[in-house]
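User: Earlier you gave me the apo prediction for this protein. Now I'd like the version with NAP bound, so I can compare the two side by side. Same sequence as before, with the ligand SMILES added.
Assistant: Got it. Here's the input I'm using:
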Amino acid sequence: MRAALVTSFDQAPRYRDCPDPTPTGPHETVVDVLAAGLHPRVRSQAAGSHYTSTDTLPLVPGIDGVGRDAGGTLRYFVLPDTTLGSMAERTVIDVRRSVALPDDADPVLLAAAMNPAMSSWVALRRRIDFRAGQRVVVLGATGNAGRLAVEVARHLGAGAVTAVGRRAELLAELEGVDHAVLLADRDALGAAGGDADVVLDYLWGPATVEAMYAIVPRRVDDAQRLTWVQIGSVAGLEAPIPSAALRATRLELVGSGQGSVAARDIVAELGELAAEIGRGTFAVDAVAVPLADVEQAWVDAATSRQRLVVTPSPPRAG
Ligand SMILES: NC(=O)c1ccc[n+]([C@@H]2O[C@H](COP(=O)([O-])OP(=O)(O)OC[C@H]3O[C@@H](n4cnc5c(N)ncnc54)[C@H](OP(=O)(O)O)[C@@H]3O)[C@@H](O)[C@H]2O)c1
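And here is the structure of the complex with NAP:
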């Protein structure tokens, strides 16, 4: 079969021949892959830089996708850590880490949205004790995951949502936000975050430190819990957190992702989220790219604001 193949961590995947996959466990099955999202997590997998990465090469990238099983059922699936990812004509899935989709589901839409939407959905439903009416700040609200976090927080009952980003023109495009605040505007960020209950942080690095310096001194009630959820790290892998911030206010720092949320808890959320995405609850900006163009897709994804979705060849006959 054809697949996207990584043979070196400093090169984009190439469109190459690859052996057909075979299931080994009792819950495994082969699916024809229809769509696989080119998420930041997939880029770091292919670069060998994700925290789950091993040095094993070659590898087929792709952590999730939509495929059709041998019985004809369309499935959204999440793969375990594997060197046989979803950017191939066929891959092996564990059916327990998948959810059946209606036959008219849009594979590209689902493959584009599930990973970025899960980041806030799982954080709010599985990682922290979020309650309807609470006030949410999204740090990094103009990316795919951040934009969806604004909508997911609203959908799950947030009392108010503040979107924080570095570009005014992109913040202005966001709908359903109570406040849109530039990261560099310490005063406005402090005012918006003063009574927040939750921060969903996609940035980390210096951006997180700057946001803490803006928000913590402006807390209306220092004893009000502020749960700061580390989700992404587009602005830096490390952040020098001011020690006083953790003493002076009831600031609690947690992370949400693969590992800090059990796989069974993530899988338990797949069906409901897929249904919401399928019925158009959230705006999704996706573009399909043939698997044969995967090398160019890697270049384009570095600057595209849309979520690129790799679409392997049509399923084999018979
Ligand atoms: N933990 C989880 O469960 C989970 C799940 C999915 C994703 N994530 C992580 O979430 C992060 C975002 O993912 P995504 O899909 O939204 O990526 P994306 O669509 O590529 O968006 C990235 C955003 O980051 C912003 N950005 C980049 N560098 C920045 C900086 N120095 N300061 C401020 N903003 C900066 C960009 O802002 P502009 O719009 O201004 O260019 C862009 O909007 C990634 O780290 C990803 O790995 C985590």
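For your comparison, keep in mind: The domain at 2-115+263-311 is CATH 3.90.180.10 (Quinone Oxidoreductase; Chain A, domain 1).
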